[in-house]
# Entry
Amino acid sequence: MADTRFIGRREYFGSLFYDFQQGDYIPFDWDATNIFELRQNYDIEEIAERINKRISRESFLTFIQLCQSIELFDKESNFTGRFLPHSPVQNKLSAPLRVHLQLTNKCDLNCKHCSQDHQNALDNELELKEIFRLIDEMANIGTYELTLGGGDPFCREKDIIPIVKYAAEKGIRTNISTTGLFIGRVIAKKLTEFPIKGIRVSFDGSTEKSYDYQRGKGTYRRVVRSIKTLRELFDCPITLHSVLMKTNHTEILSFLKSVQKFKCNVWSVDFIKPVGGAKNNKILLLNDPQIREALKTIQKIQKHASTTIALNSFPYQSRGKRIYRGFGCSGGNLNCWIDASGNVYPCSFLRDSFSAGNLREHSLRDIWIYSANMQLFRTLSGNESCRECSHVGFCRGGCRARALYDGDVNKIDPACFIKIQD
# Structure
């Protein structure tokens, strides 16, 4: 486990600390980072004198009080954090914030809208010792969040407990993304022995008829049992994740009622993309007006819903940290996706165009920093409309995968926020 609550990475903008108690990253600028480093060798009065040309004494003392309020300084104003030894990297994060690992490509379903090309295990999937080695490196470079997905990660049942256990020992917070259809009560109970940050369950039909149509006869009742088991056993947030498509996009209110009925914490929403199995089932794809109409509906009910609605691929909605430069989404800038054979990509939806390297040939840090395709993705030129838009400083152009499937990775996101307002 982490030996201190706050562990920091020096970054091009200053530093980034992970708060193991709150389970989140906190960015600081260079002035704050300088104070942290000075406090390891000088007392408060000496630091105030050293920085008085840049920071007033009043501002300095206010900053110390703020750090004390989150316990990054103790009552005696001692710095309680610890820096990792790595140097910052110019114009990009020195390591990802989160890794999404496809534990296996295997899934015993055959959903027409699946983003995978097939449901079988990939050739030469990462062995347990290789996943342990990845976790070791994540702890070393300051990447403290891991999501285990698939396929379905529970199709690799014998390995998921050792992986979660090892990650916990190394201070890595684990999330699990699953269909919910292959997790039994016994293995769920074993998982409760370890800190799980969150569990996301795919939920692509709000009624038994709709769900069974998407995933197969009898699957709705199975997933409902699993959701109730997870809600009973785990204290962490439980998210229901829905992919909206032609066969379910009119069920928005019904989806929200299901989330509330099952007492889940979040309803996460995305839209089907023409990748994997969906490439061969284009009848399921929504057109741009349908996407915008669905988003308008979600925006309306968000204002009054008691349940959190997450639109993670719509950055103007998710309001996440934007601690990176340039045009483009968080894939490759904040996070990365690794397939079951160790291939690294900015995100799973960009795997056909932006392969960055393989963990068996290079370290995750080297792939993250030096990969030509990662660098290409981080330096996208964008488009004139986005560059002139008042939202671009926060939105960064939205989802690049949607733009790529629309013909050009630099194009306007087909589900653009401004278009939705039209």
User: Anything to note?
Assistant: The longest strand covers residues 196-202.
